[in-house]
Amino acid sequence: MDFINQHIQEIYFVIFCIFIGIEVISNVPSILHTPLMSGANAISGVILVGAVYMMLQIPGDDYLNLTLGGIAIFLGTLNISGGFFVTGRMLKMFSPKK
Prior knowledge:
Blueprint: H1 2-6, H2 8-26, H3 33-56, H4 63-93
InterPro entries: NADP_transhyd_a_C (IPR024605)
Enzyme class: translocase
Pfam families: PNTB_4TM
């Protein structure tokens, strides 16, 4: 409970971002899905760089946080690379046939 009281502004900010994200995504037409996904992958890349930076701040003997951070970075990398592969395949569907 003490953690929540100390970080209440950050919690409000995350909740606000969730509502904004839902509103933005729900109003995007399907034709803009591919460019939006590419933009989301770019944003995820910036977030991944921040996660790596945060991992550098964790003490070397804190194995639980290092493990959780490593798993999070692995899953984030998997998400980004999968998104770029899907975007590439979708863009190939619109290219002229040879």
